[in-house]
Write a structure and sequence with these properties.
Blueprint lengths: L4 H15 L21 E2 L25 H4 L4 E4 L4 E4 L2 E8 L2 E6 L13 H13 L12 E8 L2 E6 L18 H4 L20 E7 L2 E6 L13 E5 L6 H8 L5 E2 L6 H4 L8 E3 L3 E9 L9 H7 L5 H8 L35 H10 L19 E5 L5 H15 L4 E5 L3 H10 L4 E6 L5 H9 L21 H12 L3 H18 L3 E7 L3 E3 L3 E2 L14 H5 L3 E2 H4 L1
Parallel strand pairs: 1-10, 14-15, 14-16
Antiparallel strand pairs: 2-3, 4-5, 5-7, 6-7, 8-9, 9-10, 11-18, 12-18, 13-16, 13-17, 19-20
Helix pairs in contact: 7-9, 8-10, 12-13, 13-14
């Protein structure tokens, strides 16, 4: 089954980051390993395209190899399941005011060449990104106005505007050593191929176009938590038949790929050791063109919320791999702490066509003598629902959605344009109804700003940035501004609560299901992988995962 491109894009990102966390097992023999440690783990692909070359520059996103995520470290590491920041190279971060953020750095950290880590390295890193815009892949200098080294353990950042809404970006900024990078002639083309110097748990041990091997850094600042001596990455076929065969044969300790029948192909081959967990990612929602009737009527939209058989979509179109989504726009259960307590069932709506039927009639959209639902102009309501014709899972979901709507007396026809046409029409507002993806990150401001902010919209015929439904609401914009300025967690949660109620009460979009983050793992060599019972991280939180893993034998 060909997966939808948006979902595949998320999966590819997961593969790349997981590839970063290991390698495949095609070389068989271990180098022995330290007593009480896992000798080696085999993970997935290591990136770099079809002809990978050594590139450990963490800012050259298109061609860097997966090792970067284990050689270099950020100031904070996010648990992206619960959206909690974990101190890493920094032990403390404090907002002095909405535009001033102070970092206190960790003592005792060394670069893997033995040089001490200090605030000068942090200051240099951010200045490097400022001076070389091509390296600022997260766009952090769109928000920063200055970075000052206050003392050897303190860095003060100032922002042009209130900066709390950009805080999670710091978990993606890898700190590089000033004493190495300041000697580089052109950082934009620097591949950092020879013995890359970082503060991370691993160093590059060997490389060829088919295999990348990392070795444990014994002088790592929390070396006692790293109990895997070697990580092996192998060139893959991007989750194709070869990769799936290797997974089924147990050659990977972990990977991240879509498999049509994961239970039969993987779990049933070794139920004791073969496991998978697909935590929720972005939300896939019904987008209605809010500039058109009847979609511009809030009562009509609210009546449609229970009209969709989400579980049917999950089971038939998504193979049971995902979960129905919350109407709040939050990813449940990980972001449950942001949820207002007075929203029932975490905002997850059940299938109730009888209620939808009654609510549509009560809202002024009755059925005529032929059983067709009519608008307030007395004419039968007819519209199209679009899904890209090449995205087979979305096409199947679309069939269920259209059937649910037609069962209510609406006249809905499914269309399957090319992905390119679909995307262009969605941006321009040239549609009636279709599917869209939003949220799923730990940046609550962006999660709501992108689908709901007036500034992210545009008149019909013009390309919207991300507000493709054309939601225009001064209250929403005001709450988004409040969230952007809030540095206190309670104030942030209050604003998110207001935005989630906008989603529930006014229904700008109708969430249906969460996209999956693919993740398979084996417990023959190591235990402590994140899973549904212990979701301490998502599959791409590689530093959190590698510091949690323990030898399988020790666990027994």
């Amino acid at each position: 089954m060909r997966r939808s491109l948006l979902i595949r894009a998320a999966a590819v990102a997961t593969v790349a980051a997981l590839a970063v966390s290991g390698c495949t097992g095609t070389e068989g023999k271990s180098t022995g390993g330290t007593a009480g440690h896992v000798a080696f783990l085999d993970f997935g692909d290591f990136g770099g395209g079809s002809n990978p070359q050594q590139n450990y520059n963490p800012y050259l996103e298109a061609t860097r190899l997966g090792a970067f995520d284990y050689v270099f470290e950020p100031l904070i590491a996010y648990d992206n399941f619960h959206c909690e920041a974990r101190p890493w190279l920094a032990t403390k971060f404090e907002w002095k005011d909405p535009k001033t953020l102070v970092w206190t750095l960790r003592d005792g950290v060394k670069w893997n060449d033995g040089q001490p880590f200090s605030a000068d390295d942090v200051g240099y890193t951010f200045d490097l990104l400022k001076q070389n815009k091509a390296l600022d892949i997260k766009g952090i200098w769109r928000y920063l106005s200055g970075v000052q080294v206050t003392d050897p353990k303190t860095v003060t950042m100032t922002f042009a505007q209130p900066g709390a809404s950009t805080f999670n970006l710091f978990s993606d900024i890898k700190i590089v050593p000033k004493h190495v990078w300041s000697t580089v002639k052109d950082p934009v083309t620097f591949t950092n191929a020879e013995k890359p110097v970082g503060t991370g748990p691993y160093t590059v041990k060997s490389f060829n176009p088919q295999q990348l091997t990392l070795g444990r850094n014994p002088d790592y600042w929390q070396a006692d938590k790293v109990q895997v001596d070697e990580l092996r990455f192998h060139k893959s076929d991007n989750g194709g038949q070869i990769d799936q065969l290797k997974l089924s044969r147990g050659e990977y300790d972990t990977n991240a790929m879509f498999v049509p029948d994961i239970k039969k192909a993987f779990v049933d081959r070794d139920p004791e050791h073969n496991h998978y967990w697909y935590p929720p990612g972005g939300t896939i929602s019904v987008y209605l063109n809010l500039t058109k009737a009847p979609f511009n009527d809030m009562a009509f939209r609210k009546a449609l919320v229970p009209a969709f058989n989400r579980q049917d979509i999950v089971d038939k179109a998504q193979l049971g791999y995902v979960k129905p989504a919350s109407q709040t726009g939050l990813v449940i259960p990980g972001q449950e702490q942001w949820l207002p307590k007075d929203i029932p069932n975490n905002g997850i709506m059940g299938y109730d066509p009888a209620k939808a039927d009654a609510d549509l009639t009560a809202a002024g959209y009755p059925k005529n003598a032929q059983g067709k639902r009519v608008g307030k102009d007395g004419k039968p309501i007819s519209f199209t629902f679009r899904t890209p014709g090449a995205w087979t899972d979305w096409v199947q979901a679309g069939k269920i959605i259209v059937a649910n709507l037609n069962a209510l007396g609406l006249t809905v026809r499914q269309e399957g344009p090319t992905p390119e046409s679909y995307e262009a029409d969605r941006k321009a507002g040239n549609y009636d109804a279709l599917l869209g993806v939003h949220g799923g990150s730990c940046n609550m401001y962006r999660n709501y700003y992108e689908p709901l902010a007036s500034a992210a919209s545009a008149p019909i015929g013009k390309q919207a940035v991300s507000n493709f439904v054309r939601w225009q609401d001064p209250h929403t914009d005001q709450v988004l501004d409040t969230l952007a300025n809030a540095t206190d967690e309670n104030a942030q949660k209050a604003a998110v609560g207001e935005l989630s109620k906008v989603m529930v009460d006014q229904v700008p979009v109708i969430p249906l299901w969460y996209g999956a983050r693919w993740f398979q793992y084996r417990t023959t060599r190591a235990v402590g992988w994140p899973n549904e019972q212990d979701p301490y991280a998502i599959p791409t939180d590689n530093l959190l995962i590698i510091t949690h893993l323990k030898p399988a034998e020790a666990a027994k």
